[in-house]
What does this fold into?
Amino acid sequence: MRYRESGSLDTSGVRDTRGSGGRGGGRGLAVGGGGLGLVGLVVVVLLQVLGGGEGGSPISGFSGMGQDATVDNSALAENCRTGADANESVECAVVADIESIQDFWSGALGADYTPTQTVFFSGSVQTSCGGATSGSGPFYCPADQLVYIDLTFFDQLREQFGAQGGLFVDAYVIAHEYGHHVQNLLGINARVTPGETGPISGTVRLELQADCFAGAWARHAETVPDDSGEPLIAEITDDDIDRALDAAGRIGDDFIQENLGGGTVDQDAFTHGSSDQRRRWFLTGYESGDLRRCDTFATEDLG
It folds into this structure.
């Protein structure tokens, strides 16, 4: 994956709290792992997710990001100015990914899309969905409409899950989380029964659709214009797609249960989809580029 060297990066899509030592509060995790949560963690806080976007109340008394976290984008803005910086730095690449993904959705949905920010945190963070730590993986909180990530997750994805990794894999992770933001804006969350699990459950359908949305963005990424009218993403290669499919396979429920859990696959406990399902729906979005093909709620054949 390459970014346009002369492209100008906009860091306003990020809230960088990494220097603030944000605290989780010690009152339990409310994690959103929008498809990438680690083994043993509760994935997607359904009470919050299914409560819709703007009116959700905090869990466990947490009052949201910003109470204990100080946002300081100055270093990020200094370091991440151009696409050349994105080609050399993971954090700058994520800045570029966020900009491209949101430009895509603004074009696809028009007035129905409301841009949001990604919170960079280190160690732990408070959100309107509760407290979370780095072990939660990246997640989206519908109550404050923010994406959260500790960038060390990308190291975990390679070291713990054995994924090949790479800048495009990182972009896939971010695009998946923004897929949850789109679902929240469009009210798709309301189609899911709280606590439902299983290989064809509404919970799994929500996650697979976010994978498909990520694939659709990837199909168009090389042509999505930034504010200058030119694409910020210069190239996505076949190797990038293969790496994303490798990652999707390693964050399937069956792979995680068998390789990182107790060794036994329990389909009734699926919350994100099997490895095959996740690969299939990312490819559905990528190969078609058609968001209409991402309606995982309209088919009984999820793969």
